[in-house]
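Late entry, evening session. Most of the bench is empty. Finally got around to the prediction I had been postponing all week. Sequence below, unchanged from the version circulated by S.P.
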Amino acid sequence: MILDAVFLDAGGVLVNPNWARVSEALARHGVHVDAARLGAAEPHAKHEMDTADRIRTTNDRSRGWEYLHLVLTHAGVPRSNATDEALGELYDYHERHSLWESVPEEVPGALAALKRLGLRLVVVSNSNGTLRTHLTRMGLASAFDLMIDSTEVRVEKPDTGIFALTVQRLGVAPGAVLHVGDFFHIDVVGARAAGLHAWLIDSAGLYTGYDCPRFPNLTAVVEAVARFTE
């Protein structure tokens, strides 16, 4: 595999939900669950959603609401009027600012390491039109040669169109690009259909048996990319 560029999903790869903010919103409505339990539940919620049928019959906006409810379910929190009200507040916040505002400590160093390997970096994200502003706020925007927000380009993963548009804008061949994401049926399936290489971030080891390279975090991805580019 000879690479010119690495495409990265935003949520689940570069940034994670602010579970402390979620916990605080729930507490304001009388529902008490700590941030650590929510964070531990998140990969299981994501994995439950990550089926071909579910992805084909939903879009990113509708999945966001379902995702938060599933996180609560896997954290042992039953749905109620109180949880709906809290999640409604969080949804409003996300629309303005993005709830995915926690940057894992490894991310800046991992991005710098990829740049040192001579690779062009691109974010390809199903987002709500705030991606560029959000990554600037998180201090990550300067690491990227290009940022593709699905709302701005009016096509979202796993549609091959978003990948085709991105490689065209960047001026690279699809076969010289690796896409890294955290949903098999969105990121891996979509990127492969567009002719890209695709790897999966599988932080909880839930994707055993899936036919793609899996990594626990972005640092492990960088280490593997470095071996390919030696």
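Two things to note before I forget:
The chain has two domains: 5-14+103-229, 19-96.
The beta strands are 5-8, 120-125, 146-149, 177-181, 197-201, 214-215.
Will write this up properly tomorrow.
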